[in-house]
Amino acid sequence: MEYSPPPLFKQGPSALARLVFFVVLALALLISDARFKTLEIVRGVLGAGLYPLQRAALVPRDVFMGAADLAVTSATLRSDNEKLRTKNLQLSQQANTAAELSAENAHLRALLQLSQRATTQSLPAEIQYDTRDPFTQKVVINRGAQQGIQNGSPVVNEDGVIGQVTRVFPLQAEVTLLTDKDQAVPVQIVRTGLRSVIYGTPKGDTLDLRFVPISADVQTGDELVTSGLDGVYPPGLPVAKVVRVDRQADTAFARVICLPIAPVRGARQLLVLHYVNDVPPRPVEEPEVSAKDAKAKKGAKSADSKAAADKSAKPGEKPAEKPADKAAGQSTQPAQTAQTGKASAADQKSAASKKSAAAEKAKPQAAPGAKP
């Protein structure tokens, strides 16, 4: 009698054979899906079928999180509302003070007959993308020449200076950020009024305040704003804060490291300023004349004046005497009066004889064979 186990205890293929089969099947599915995307449709169908089950499983969590958010939101709204009321009160006081100062400034300017130095217009813009050069700090905005963007216009946001427009296209413009190594902005320290120029660095994360003497009063935490002396940036725009000051004895200038106040890389919405400076242009400087050139010109002028005086003198006359010689001649005139009277008669005779001889020589001589 042949014995066979019941169907419940039939094992079929061995465990090792099944392991190898399923491993090979999994690798084949992975490779085919990664190379040929064969399971995209299957994945989409399974995801659509299981979505209602997933939402039903997440309902308790969503109810709990919604209740917690409602409680937190109510408390947050109350605190934010209180903060906004306080801030509104402070801003209203500052607005009243600013209006009073503006009226007083206008009155003083009218009293002193001074005109407003500058007018600033702004145009909103948005960053589209970065430039392709990875070694520069530049972005492209969605405003161009057709919208009134001009080359050299400063770019700011609500915190401070972001950069400057360096290239303008019809519908776009290129902005060089403040941290670019080729960007320079004239600034001054708010606390002391010290003026200098701030530059970007090759790394593009900090700013370098150059041409600051070692003895200058610069401290960590000082705020830098635009000075407005270049005629490009309006005065008073926040630029950077001092984070480190290194003073070395072997250099004439201190090394001042700063960080930009505005988020240069984090800003998306910007303002492009159209700054019109009403200050008159600089006067034309005359070329400097060296000491040797001045002496040469002075000598040439004296020689020309002496030659002109010699030409103006008549033939037979002596050149004009100097004041000292004239005074000496006047002092010796009484002693020479008698001698001059005696010599005058002889001089007149000699002059008459010379004139008669010259007249005889000047007569034309008769040609040979000519009649008298």
Automatic annotation (TrEMBL):
<dbReference type="InterPro" id="IPR042177">
    <property type="entry name" value="Cell/Rod_1"/>
</dbReference>
<dbReference type="InterPro" id="IPR055342">
    <property type="entry name" value="MreC_beta-barrel_core"/>
</dbReference>
<dbReference type="InterPro" id="IPR042175">
    <property type="entry name" value="Cell/Rod_MreC_2"/>
</dbReference>
<keyword id="KW-0472">Membrane</keyword>
<dbReference type="InterPro" id="IPR007221">
    <property type="entry name" value="MreC"/>
</dbReference>
<feature type="region of interest" description="Disordered">
    <location>
        <begin position="281"/>
        <end position="372"/>
    </location>
</feature>
<feature type="compositionally biased region" description="Low complexity">
    <location>
        <begin position="341"/>
        <end position="356"/>
    </location>
</feature>
<keyword id="KW-0812">Transmembrane</keyword>
<feature type="domain" description="Rod shape-determining protein MreC beta-barrel core">
    <location>
        <begin position="130"/>
        <end position="273"/>
    </location>
</feature>
<feature type="transmembrane region" description="Helical">
    <location>
        <begin position="12"/>
        <end position="31"/>
    </location>
</feature>
<comment type="similarity">
    <text>Belongs to the MreC family.</text>
</comment>
<feature type="compositionally biased region" description="Polar residues">
    <location>
        <begin position="330"/>
        <end position="340"/>
    </location>
</feature>
<keyword id="KW-0133">Cell shape</keyword>
<keyword id="KW-1133">Transmembrane helix</keyword>
<dbReference type="Pfam" id="PF04085">
    <property type="entry name" value="MreC"/>
</dbReference>
<protein>
    <recommendedName>
        <fullName>Cell shape-determining protein MreC</fullName>
    </recommendedName>
</protein>
<feature type="compositionally biased region" description="Basic and acidic residues">
    <location>
        <begin position="283"/>
        <end position="325"/>
    </location>
</feature>
